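Ticket #4471: structure output looks truncated?

Reporter: J.K.
Steps to reproduce: submitted the chain below (57 residues) through the standard prediction queue, then opened the result file.
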Amino acid sequence: MSFGRRNTDWQAWGQHRRRATARMAQKSREREIEEYQAQFEDKDGKGRLKTEGNKDE
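Returned output as attached by the reporter:
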């Protein structure tokens, strides 16, 4: 394997890792946002934070 070939493969691998990492980070961010917003979804729809004392759930 020539050095030039190895070099282009390495650059492509680095670019792939950057894209894959960004995509994974975006997915985890979206999941965290959904979990955070789910805390505020109450049965009455007023957007209050759910607490342990809410008996009307």
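Triage note (M.O.): checked the attachment and the full token line is present. The chain has a mean pLDDT of 73.
Status: closed, working as intended.
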